[in-house]
Task: structure prediction
Amino acid sequence: MTATEQNAFDVAAAKDRCKRHRKRILDMTQYVTALHVGGAFSSTEIVDCIYYNLMRPGPNGNPVGDDAPDTFLMSKGHGYMIQVMLLVDLGILTEEHLRGYCTPHGILGVHPDYGNPGIEASTGSLGHGMGMALGMAYAEKTRGTNGTIYTVMSDGEVQEGSTWEATLMASSLGVSNLVAFIDNNNMQSATFTTDTHPSFYPVVEKYQAFGWEAVEVDGHDSEAIFNAVQNRSGDKPLLVNCKTTKGKGVSYMESVPMWHYRSPDPEEYKQAIREIDEAN
Amino acid sequence: MRNMFSQTLFECASENPDIYIVVADISPAGPMMDFQTNHPDRFINVGVAEQTMIGMCAGLALKGCQPFAYTIATFTLYRPFEMVRDDLGYQNLPVTIVGMGAGVIYSTLGGTHHTMEDVAVASAIPNMRVLAPCDPAELVEATRYCAYQKEGPVYLRIGKAGEPTFTDTAVDKFEFGKIRYIQKGTDVCILAYGTIMAKAMEVAKELEAKGKSVSVVSAHTIKPLDRPGIEAALNGHDQVIVVEDHVPEGGLSSRVKQIAWDVQAKCKLHTFTLKDEFIHNYGSQDDLLAAHGISVPLILEQVA
Result:
């Protein structure tokens, strides 16, 4: 990508899309209770940027599909709902799929299931994504197909030892076509990560010490996420530590533990939609 | 067996560019060195990181590769169990997990290195198949099967070194999913899998010396177990003996007993397994097996 194109990053379009994704997720909360709204909202800009701005389109113009060069693996499986909305946007999943979510006649559940359209790996148990993404990236590199593997982890997930095993191995193998994002919303299920694991910080320096290129960005600034990847040196795996807010965009949800999983009631729903509509 | 495995996999990898091997701190020696030298990109040593060994194999398989995960048996399944279950089983990926030195082959290294529950653990996972060839020749067949199959994950339970060959003159050929008669008799049938076959063969010889006509069967595919084959063995002999270096729960013995009940088998049925106890004594593999009731004299005492 040239500097001119990079400068042409369409901030307004990304904002519009992310508003739409959040509102559609809120719509779903009104007929399904099993949704991780908070974690989906903290990952919204990251996942949107990956699908719309980072993954290269395949021959049919879609970044998802057998012939598309790059791969996205949602390591934080509980953030699945934002991935679902992107796949609907890209025409991989349909409204019919959404209507079947978590029902006996549907194929979509709370976490990504390999085999479903657009889903590259089954996740939901944390700490599996980095190992699988490493294997995928290594295959792409050694088979000369050279696709880039993008993955999004939660900050809580980085407590898993398996994540660090694979992190160490990725840099040792020189897998430069691996780009990992931490959706660093400082929360894990019901507690704050800064309280449970103050030694997790600073994050960027840890990854650098593990042989990665690592940068930190505002995880709700789509252009900053995009630029972090565009400006990488490219000879090491890249970690983008995205500072985010759980439940981002809805005042009463932001950084409030119960919105890890809860669905808003009808009044709360209306307020949430209003806040998202009125935001800049 | 490990050298035969390495040799066979090296040959398969030279034919099939999809084959990768991910090892956890196994130093390449002998034929494995040939693999690493000739296919350096497809030999990966993740070191002491078994979760990454399995996760990486899953990622490779998701990209169309045919990966093998390889280390000492106990570390292939127990440490990375959830990766085996979720990444390989749930996603049904064609990855072969090679458990080397299974059973109590690492007899002096203590209980941390004994692999006594692997068949039960692996068999409990949906989609997982379990293969345990009884000698180096059968291992070649099993490895070749694993190197080309695309159906899903396999746990391949193998020995270590110095195992004799029993199947050179076997009555049946190796076929995945079928029990294999090494020799066919009419009175007694001995069922075994893996390296414990050495004991089964000795017991057969002793029983033959006493005038019995003895079948010896390699039940190399423990999952899916050849149910019609087991039923025929139960119905076709007066006495059936199962020998395995595995705990009583979830191994071949418990499956054969289950089938025997289902078909109301009339034969006498004797099973010899490790006890449901960890082993705290040391010595040779034979010493440890004998401590749990698996030796030729102890078996003969029960069955003759």
Residues 24 and 71 of chain B are 6 Å apart (CA to CA).
